[in-house]
Amino acid sequence: MNRYLQYGLIAAVAGIAGIAGYFTSQIGDSAGSSTTSTASAGTTEALLALALPDTEGHMQPLAQWRGKVIVANFWATWCPPCRREIPDFSAASRSFGDAPVQFVGLSIDSLDKVKAFKAEFDVPYPLLIASADVLALGPGFGNAAQGLPFTVIIDRQGVARHVKVGTLNQDELERKIRPLIDDKS
């Protein structure tokens, strides 16, 4: 396949995903589409089974954070709503300090762009480099359009408790996470 055609296809797919994410975000923001998850245990296990490279090239298995509340945020540097919510995720991550909470960004993007973004926005949690294939988990979490951003909050027992397609702010994040920190059911 011609190199220019490949680049064109990649740009087209990225543009479509960005537009879908934007409109999904707008719908989610106005409708308050945060939900208690109906994700199957299999979908959550598939997410926790991922091992993806971080910005330093080290493989990071998501399973290493079992036993903590995991806030998995699917995003990309080219996604305007994603860029808008990351400062709130960073602030929420910092506010939990030593609590058993782990934020992790699953970026559908290139390593160089994610590294630059991490440095520019001083993101305090791991940003992992994922392929577009990782978005295939989206429908299992109720994100049939596979729009960005979307966030899955997994409790300390490994159960997806909240899924939000669209942006989350710091207050929303903290309200959803706090009850899960001490819940050991």
UniProtKB/TrEMBL annotation:
Give its localization.
Answer: Cell envelope
Give the transmembrane ranges. 7-25
Q: Which Pfam families match?
A: AhpC-TSA
Q: What residue range is the signal peptide?
A: none
The protein's GO terms of the molecular function aspect are: antioxidant activity; disulfide oxidoreductase activity
Biological process according to GO:
cytochrome complex assembly
Q: Which UniProt keywords apply?
A: Cytochrome c-type biogenesis, Disulfide bond, Membrane, Redox-active center, Transmembrane, Transmembrane helix
The UniProt entry lists the main location of this chain as other
> Is the keyword Membrane assigned to this protein?
yes
Give coiled-coil spans as residue ranges. none
Q: Which GO terms describe its cellular component?
A: cell envelope
Q: Where is the Thioredoxin domain?
A: 39-182
What SUPFAM superfamilies does the entry give? Thioredoxin-like
Family annotation (PANTHER family): THIOL:DISULFIDE INTERCHANGE PROTEIN DSBE
Name the record gives this protein? Thioredoxin
Look up and give the organism this protein is from.
Answer: Parazoarcus communis
